[in-house]
Amino acid sequence: MLDVxxxxxxxxxxxxxxxxxxxxxxxxxxAMDGEDLRKLPLSMRKTNLERVLxxxxxxxxxxxxxxxxxxxxxxxxxxxxxxxxLVSKHAERWYGAGRCPHWRxxxxxxxxxxxxxxxxx
Length: 121
Known about the structure:
Layout: E1 24-26, E2 31-32, E3 35-36, H1 42-52, E4 60-62, H2 71-80, E5 85-89, E6 103-107, H3 112-120
Parallel strand pairs: 1-4
Antiparallel strand pairs: 2-3, 5-6
């Protein structure tokens, strides 16, 4: 769901107030036509995802994917926009469940969602 600035507000999902306005942003593809794609590099899975969603229904989008060493600048911009954070993935790595060194979740410590997660522990 987007706020008045056009910025995604994942935190709003918890209220249930905006359920009719929810949109799906697909960011990876684990399987296609019964074939397990998890061992393929992310770049290939992204290509398959774009192909699958080329004629997507309204409300489903392919999440943008930025490449290169832009992480610190992108994270700073995300924090300045008051976003929850970023997930960084190595484009040539396979999908692994759980924590792994080529997938990083970096959270904006000033975002309300960060404090909500802290309060749970």
